[in-house]
Automatic annotation (TrEMBL):
It comes from the Eukaryota. One of its GO terms (cellular component) is Ski complex. This is TTC37 protein. The keyword Cytoplasm does not apply.
């Protein structure tokens, strides 16, 4: 076949393809290849025809042969691109990427529109594969090409915005180069916007700041972006809210941070971050109740802020609301998710605080939960503070040997740490080794004199050591006063101060004040509440006693606050208000149905009210629960006598006299009953 015939055969092949006669085209191409096996066009036509005849492998082979012959010719590359684009096979995407890259190279110096088309296709392909770095790199080339051609500012602005959309999913990948490309795209888009200030520009700024807030290492850039946006849009709260959250999460409370909190609060008094910031300020100023109130309110509006939950837990710890601390720490951990980098520090702080609160709850289950929390802390086995907390948890759980082992280890490795000596003190105190406990707590206080808890335990040690140290003003009293001065929210200290003033100093008025303070700090401290009521009664201040009792009973749920119901019920009984007494004593019995004395008092209330049958049942119930209660047996006999059941009453009185021959009220009642029976017999002519 001559050169002329080869050209004619190729023309025939081209015509056949144009007419969609692909088999015919293949025949012409094969004829050409017999003569010229390296004919580029023939291989390209074979590739095209085979592709149309749904013979992808043959088409691919033909195109690749053509490329091998002429690697810088467009036709084969274009054909291969078309073949891969139509393929349903996922494994060709990598090959297609290579083809597009080659086409970009070939179009770069020629057809710019086709270069842009292929560039868009390649970017879409990378995007499907989540290859964000390649997306960024390729799109930047496109923008550079447009800039070289002198594209309008508005067109470039749209291209930068498109790049932002393309890279939005990349924030999960943590690739620094891609992150930088995304942030650069935002900055270029902001700088190339026409309408400044304007709604689109403002929304773009919000997206930029939101994006920056996802990158912990971009704090300087975040602060700058927030400040720049505030300068452009002074009425917008968003940048200020983000800045406030940034300061909260960073854990630093600078003058700038406090200024931001104050400014945001002025702009929007209901803003979550602003209210949280105010709460943190209160916490810093040691206004713990106000801190709890503000942080709780702020977190209702902005709940996904682990640092704020930690600050709330810290404030609750300062007011000794230990169960609330545990709940806040759990919320903080939930908001934290799977932490890494700076967030890991927050996780460790939260877990340690949770464990410390669980220890204060002081039961075995809480101690076990504390140990589990501590196990999740990074480097827990080498952190002496964490080890000290762990030792306390073992002690409360009852594992004294493990607690002692940790104590000895800490004393050897960290003898200058107050917590090392305090743990030793707690162990001695729990075993009533008060002299050793005293030595340990004094050692702890030498190293940390501002620790209220150590003064508290040293005071308790002196209190239980013996009468001498209990009465010595320089021992127990001094330590309790120091603890109260250092921590005015420590309820137990005020309770023991009350004990001191009542039992040792004999100062009922001061004792009552201390008990009242202890009860105000801890509403579950029934001992202090009851003591405050008793002393108020002794001092003749019944109004103060009733004020405490009314407050407790109003808030009490069914089956709780027995002591308050009982105290008030007895008061009503003494002041001849039997109906009120019955109601309160019934409420007390719901809390403790097996209290024989309470049943006896209820019987008295029914008797005063004239409800004799129910009074009799109450006295009988008291006797069932405690057969030694002679008074209940006597009152049952008295009620039977009132009801005219003289024979029953005689049997009841005799039951008493069998045990106590000289029980005068029973003898009197027995005589009266015999007399009434005799009188009845006379009236009936017996």
């Amino acid at each position: 076949m001559s050169n002329k015939e080869v050209k004619a055969a190729l023309k025939s092949a081209r015509d056949a393809i144009r007419n969609k006669e692909y088999k015919e085209a293949l025949k012409h191409c094969k004829a050409v290849l017999k003569q010229e096996k390296n004919n580029y066009n023939a291989w390209v036509f074979i590739g095209l025809s085979a592709a149309e005849l749904e013979q992808p492998d043959q088409a691919k082979g033909a195109y690749k042969k053509a490329i091998e012959l002429e690697p810088n010719q467009l036709l084969a590359w274009q054909g291969l691109a078309n073949l891969y684009e139509k393929s349903n096979q996922t494994d060709v995407k990598g090959d297609l990427e290579d083809v597009y890259q080659k086409l970009l190279e070939l179009y770069e110096s020629g057809d710019k529109q086709k270069w842009y088309d292929v560039c868009n296709k390649l970017v879409d392909l990378y995007r499907q594969e989540n290859k964000y770095f390649e997306v960024a790199e390729t799109w930047q080339k496109l923008i550079q090409m447009k800039q070289t051609e002198g594209a309008e500012k508005s067109e470039l602005h749209q291209l930068w915005k498109k790049m932002i959309q393309l890279l939005k999913g990349s924030t999960e990948n943590k690739e620094n180069k891609t992150e930088q490309s995304l942030l650069a795209a935002f900055e270029h888009a902001l700088n190339s916007a026409d309408a400044v200030p304007g709604d689109d520009h403002q929304n773009l700024y919000k997206d930029f700041i939101q994006c920056l807030s996802k990158f912990p290492h971009e704090t300087a850039r975040l602060e700058k972006a927030c400040n720049d946006m505030m300068a452009l849009y002074p009425a917008a709260c968003y940048p200020l809210e983000v800045l406030c959250l940034h300061f909260i999460q960073s854990g630093t409370l600078s003058e700038e941070a406090l200024h931001c909190f104050s400014k945001l609060l002025e702009m929007d008094a209901s803003s979550g971050p602003a209210i949280i910031g105010l709460g943190i300020k209160y916490l810093q100023e040691k206004k713990y109740k106000e801190a709890v109130k503000s942080l709780t309110e702020g977190l209702q509006k902005t709940s996904q802020c682990p640092a704020a939950w930690h600050h709330l837990a810290d404030a609750q710890m300062k007011t000794h609301k230990h169960r609330d601390v545990v709940l806040s720490c759990n919320q903080a951990l939930e908001a934290l998710g799977t932490p890494e980098g700076p967030s890991l520090r927050w996780k460790n702080l939260i877990l340690q605080l949770k464990a410390e609160a669980l220890i204060k709850i002081a039961d075995a289950d809480a101690a076990e939960e504390a140990i589990k929390a501590l196990e999740q802390i990074v480097d827990a086995s080498t952190n002496p503070m964490v080890l000290a907390v762990r030792g306390q948890a073992y002690l409360i759980k009852g594992s004294v040997d493990q607690a002692s082992e940790i104590s000895q280890e800490l004393l050897q490795s960290h003898p200058d740490l107050a917590e090392s000596h305090a743990l030793e003190g707690f162990i001695h105190y729990s075993q009533k080794n008060y002299e050793q406990a005293e030595r340990s707590f004094l050692n702890a206080l030498e190293r940390k004199d501002e620790a209220a808890e150590y003064h508290q335990y040293l005071g308790l040690t002196y209190w239980f050591m013996g009468d001498e140290t209990r009465k010595d003003k320089g021992k127990a009293l001094t330590q309790f006063l120091k603890a109260a001065k250092l921590d005015s929210n420590l309820g137990i200290v005020f309770r023991y101060l009350g004990n001191y003033y009542r039992e040792v100093a004999g100062d009922k008025s001061r004792a009552r004040g201390c008990y009242k303070k202890a009860f105000e700090l801890d509403r579950s401290d029934e001992e202090s509440g009851a003591a405050a009521v008793d002393l108020s009664e002794e001092l003749g201040d019944m109004d103060a006693a009733l004020s405490i009792l009314n407050e407790v009973t109003e808030k009490a749920i069914t089956g709780t606050a027995k002591w308050a119901w009982l105290h008030r019920g007895l008061y009503y009984l003494r002041t001849d208000q039997p109906t009120k007494a019955v109601a309160d004593l019934q409420a007390a019995l719901r809390a403790d149905p097996k209290d024989a004395n309470c049943w006896e008092s209820l019987g008295e209330a029914y008797l005063s009210r004239g409800s004799y049958s129910t009074a009799l049942k109450s006295f009988r119930r008291a006797n069932e629960l405690n057969p030694e209660l002679m008074y209940s047996i006597y009152k049952a006999g008295e009620v039977e006598q009132i009801l005219g059941k003289y024979s029953n009453a005689i049997a009841t009185y005799q039951q008493i006299l069998e045990k106590t021959e000289d029980y005068v009220p029973a003898l009197k009642g027995l005589g009266e009953c015999y007399l009434m029976l005799a009188k009845s017999a006379l009236e009936n002519y017996f």
